[in-house]
Structures are given as structure tokens and as C-alpha cells.
Amino acid sequence: MAQARPATTFRALLGQVLQARRERAGLSQHDLADQVGLTQSAWSRVERGHNAISVEQLRRACRALGTESDALLQETDHVAESLRDQGIRVEEQDPRSPLANGLVLIGFAALATAVVAALFSEE
Fold it and tell me: Cys bridge to 80: 12, 66, 90, 93, which one at CB 3.0-4.6 A?
């Protein structure tokens, strides 16, 4: 039986990139959430990849982080490509099977480490 590859979603990667950018900017989740128009708990779910944000919220977040939305999405694409090169599946939507969801949870810590390493390797 073939071993299942770890998987994540583009939305989860975007959340990781947003979190890394927020931390580099020295903002708390509460501060950024307030500027975006969300509660801190809702923003936390965005960073964990559980909730999506609207285009308007993404633009406000980018403004607060001092970046453009296209640069943020390109950075997320770069991270996704880096993970794919490591054999990690990056899916456009949340996987629906319980096994895939379990793999996302199991691989989340490793993915977070890989995302942070990819982000900081460009500096």
C-alpha cells in the first residue's frame, strides 16, 4: 500500500505567510485583526487556514503589513512550489476525506517550519 503524502491547502499557506508577515511587522493578531475588520479569534482562524478572508480584507491586511496583495500571493505561490518540491501536496480546496484532514493536522508543524524557512531564506 502506497504511503499517503502530507498535504496542505493554499489557504493554510496564505495564513502562514500572513502570520509570518504580521510577526515581522511587530503586530499582534489583535492589532492586525482590528485593522482588517475582524475579531482576534477570526484572524487567528485565518492564520491557521481554517477561515478564508475576502478580497477587501486581504487588501486591508496588506496595507497594514506594508505590502501589495500581488506580492503576498506571489510569496504564497513560492512557498507552495517549495513545498511541492519537497513532496507535499498543496490543494486548492480543503481536502474532504478524514484521512486527508488527519494528514493536514499531522503535517502542520512540519509545514509551518518549512514555510518559515522558505520565507526567511529569501532575506
Answer: 90
Per the structure block, which three cell numbers stand in for 109?
508543524
Range list of H helices, the chain: 10-25, 29-36, 40-47, 55-65, 69-85, 98-121
**Strand 7-9 and strand 89-91: pairing?**
parallel
DSSP, collapsed to helix, strand or coil, labels residue 39 as coil
- Residue linked to cell 490543494: 91
pTM for this model (two decimals): 0.73
What distance in Å separates the CA atoms of residue 99 and residue 89, rounded to the nearest whole number?
Answer: 14
Instruction: Give the tens place of pLDDT for each residue, 10-19.
Output: 999 999 999 9
Judging by beta carbons within 10 Å of its beta carbon (0-12, 13-18, 19+), is residue 42 exposed, middle or buried?
Answer: middle
The dihedrals phi and psi of 3, each to the nearest 5 degrees, come to -80, 135
Q: Among 83, 93, 90, 71, which residue's Cα sits nearest to residue 113?
A: 83
User: Dmax of the chain from CA atoms?
Assistant: 49
Among the listed residues 73, 74, 65, 56, the one whose alpha carbon sits nearest the alpha carbon of residue 20? 65
